[in-house]
Design goal:
With 127 residues, the chain is an alpha/beta fold. Helix content is 46%, strand content 28%. The chain is built from 4 helices and 7 strands. It has helices at residues 12-25, 42-51, 63-77, 88-107, and strands spanning 3-7, 28-35, 56-61, 80-81, 85-86, 111-116, 121-126. A 3-stranded parallel sheet has the order 1-2-3, sandwiched between helices. A two-stranded antiparallel sheet has the order 4-5. Helix 3 (63-77) runs antiparallel to helix 4. The chain is elongated and about 45 Å long. Mean pLDDT is 83; it is low at 116-127.
Length: 127
């Protein structure tokens, strides 16, 4: 059976996406969450992905990588969102995509979806 690697947050959108992708496309879904230092219960996130239908659920510890490769550069460049908040959350997205693709390459899935929840759109990239 083909596999799909889903960047997984543990929220409603990605939790529903696991079952929907599996049923709609007939693939096994592998959920990948990235720990960039947020205070979240990643074990609960991993367990939830399995509970809603993922065949595998991984949590990648990317805290050091996020700090050294992303945050220090953002701080040096004084990157701000709307001139008020450090632009850290958005900085994690390329790192998440990098690890999602790495897992996809290691496990051999045919696709890995990406989502833009603010616009409720989902796209799929094929390897």
């Amino acid at each position: 059976m083909d596999k799909c690697v889903l960047a997984y947050s543990g929220g409603l959108d990605t939790s529903v996406a696991i079952r929907w992708i599996a049923e709609k496309y007939g693939v096994e879904v592998i959920a990948v969450a990235i720990d960039v230092g947020e205070e979240k219960n990643y074990e609960a996130i991993r367990a939830k992905a399995l509970q809603v239908g993922a065949v595998e659920s991984l949590v990648v510890d990317a805290r050091e990588e996020f700090f050294t490769d992303y945050l220090t550069r953002a701080l040096a460049g004084n990157l701000m969102y709307e001139g008020r908040y450090p632009l850290f959350t958005a900085l994690a997205r390329p790192l998440l995509a990098q690890h999602q693709v790495r897992v996809a390459q290691e496990m051999g899935p045919a696709t890995w979806p990406t989502a833009a929840p603010a616009r409720a759109t989902t796209r799929s990239a094929s390897r």
